[in-house]
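Morning!

This is the sequence you dropped in the shared folder:
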Amino acid sequence: MKISVKSGGVSAASADLLVIPVSSEPTKTGREAGPRLPQGVAGMDRGLGGVIAQGLASGDFQGRPDQRMLLYPASKTG
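The structure's back. Tokens below.
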């Protein structure tokens, strides 16, 4: 197995697995605002049919330490 770590534009990534760090950021009042789509990932998410934003909107993932969310791109067959 070969593992590579790279940084850069995610829309040009070609990989079997892509890890995107997402966290909940506290609001000014100290309450968690919930996970947000990282800046720079929106274009890739659109190309995947919005599956990342949908996963975050489901509420099942809060962006807390040690949490993971596994997503599959929408099928383009039809």
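Headline: Strands lie at 24-26, 32-35.

More detail when I'm at my desk.
O.
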